[in-house]
Design a protein that fits this description.
Two copies of one chain form a homodimer. Chain A is about 40% helix and about 15% strand. By secondary structure, chain A is of the alpha+beta class. A six-stranded antiparallel β-sheet of chain A has the order 3-8-4-5-6-7.
DNA sequence: ATTTTTATTTAGGGATATCTAAACTTAATC
DNA sequence: GATTAAGTTTAGATATCCCTAAATAAAAAT
């Protein structure tokens, strides 16, 4: 597989939501920032390699083999992201571009050793799970914000209370679905928390608020 | 610069002995394991980019700009080698291929951070010097083997005594010009050393023998 | 000084990955 | 159901990097 093929396949995997949905030529062109004409050509090739099932004019489905290969690329990408953030002190929003290059290095031994060096991380700095070498993905654990420990990081994925008042409050304090958070401090006395949002904003939050925020740990 | 261009320029830099010698099309084809016809094409391109000075049928000279760029690629290659050996426990003779890929990752920040992470190494695992970010190369320090400290590594580069008897002795114990060594132990009493050769062979050596072996430190 | 050998370049072609423009298929609208 | 719109594919180009075969230049040999 060439670098371009790997990138297409990875995009297709994401667009198909892990193989669940059918994907169109235009979808792929959008994701890859190329023209539909270029995509048609690539889809024909990927079809021949049997990593996708391609029917002209009707879009494509990723095959089991395709999924496996896409997950290996995703695995490498996310392991490199962990390395960049944890060892080289990159910020979590600075790593994507570089990981995009590093993921194409061809060396099973390298990724195996790197994984060990990083102590077999299960999630990347964005909170996304790292597939294992067989392509198995751990479901992202979800928990209520007030159950997190100090120094744990995660991403806000949902709220329990979706009343206008609550959402308005979240908006006011700068929290939102997708925000990356880190628990800086917890007060045993009242269960209140101090949270770092997007690596910049400090936020004090009562237990009652935290109990209504669902977080995906990383 | 493309990956292929970077690789050609690096090969040219080495073949020209750092810009001292003129290089022929055939030399480059040999080093790159491509055909001379392919090289001619590439030389024209590199000439247009003014990293080499190319005269048809008469070979080429690398330019100052070319040297600078080649040294940056070499810098990246060697820094990655240090990473692979020191952090990921690769053997020094396993790293070249992977470093050959890693050196083409385009991110000045990455190499800067990696350099810091490795504590600004001056030599790669083969004992070759790592150019700094301006392309300046430290001369390789040479010293007599018995002056090395415990745990220091290096490469045998020459002998003071080149008598047949001495060379025969070296051969017998498995030491040779180019051998990679590490000082495992030193005995103060008689100045004798215990040496690891090529990461496998243990060797006891008297002070008199060690005093006749020149080593390049790394 | 001519011939032979060696080195090098040019010409033409294949693979990858991209593009624009034109053609075609399917879906949507009237 | 015909027309229009949207989506997709094909055709033809360009750029990179490689190849083989043929042509040409330079060096070596007679």
């Amino acid at each position: 597989m060439t670098t371009a093929e790997e990138n297409y396949l990875k995009a297709i995997y994401h667009l198909s939501d892990g193989g669940k949905k059918s994907v169109s030529t235009n979808d792929v062109a959008g994701a890859m920032k190329t023209k539909p004409a270029s995509v048609s050509d690539m889809l024909r090739k990927l079809g021949e390699k049997e990593v996708i099932e391609y029917r002209k004019y009707y879009g494509l489905h990723i095959t089991e083999e395709g999924k496996k290969q896409a997950l290996q690329t995703i695995r490498k990408h996310r392991i490199w992201e962990v390395f960049l953030v944890e060892k080289l002190n990159f910020a979590w929003d600075e790593v994507h571009e570089v990981a995009e290059e590093l993921e194409h290095i061809q060396s099973p031994l390298l990724i195996q050793r790197l994984d060990a060096f990083l102590n077999y991380p299960k999630f990347d700095p964005h909170g996304d799970p790292i597939p294992d070498e067989f392509g198995d993905v751990k479901a992202k654990p979800r928990l209520v914000l007030n159950e997190m420990e100090i120094d744990q990081m995660g991403q806000i994925v949902a709220v329990k209370d979706s009343s206008a008042a609550f959402l308005k409050y979240l908006d006011k304090v700068g929290a939102y679905i997708g925000a990356r958070i880190k628990v800086l401090d917890k007060t045993d006395f009242d269960g209140s928390l101090e949270i770092l949002v997007d690596q910049k904003k400090n936020l004090f939050m009562s237990k009652d608020v935290a109990a209504n925020i669902l977080v995906q740990q990383s």
